[in-house]
UniProtKB/TrEMBL annotation:
This is L-2-amino-thiazoline-4-carboxylic acid hydrolase. It comes from Eggerthia catenaformis OT 569 = DSM 20559. InterPro entries: ATC_hydrolase-like. It comes from the Bacteria. It holds the Pfam family ATC_hydrolase.
Amino acid sequence: MNQEQFGKMVSATIEAPMLKKNFQKQKAFDIKKQKKKIEKNKIANAASDSEFNWNTELILGRDEDEYTVMYHRCGLCALGKQEHHEELIPYMCKMDYETITMMGGVLKRKGTIATGADCCDFYVCKKGSKWDK
């Protein structure tokens, strides 16, 4: 399978009705859900130091219509490196934009671990909110 085919496979996967339905029902712009996610991240980050797990930090925004997520470690990057397929990981990162869109948001970021940044920085705001500029 070449890179173009892999990219098409990733796009087709994210369009699967089961995945779309799951992302569309998530309440990403609910302050209680955001605070709960912060607590879940603390537990998950403490539970495993494996390079194949993510180390995630959610930072609350100025209101519930925005937040930031920082991935300090990426399990997919570690797996891609182990399997000598680092060139495929950016295709997986592309899914982030599509899943955030399905949740009613807009994703903006400066970099990803897969492209050489120290972390994956996700600024997420609700589509159509005052932060969506």
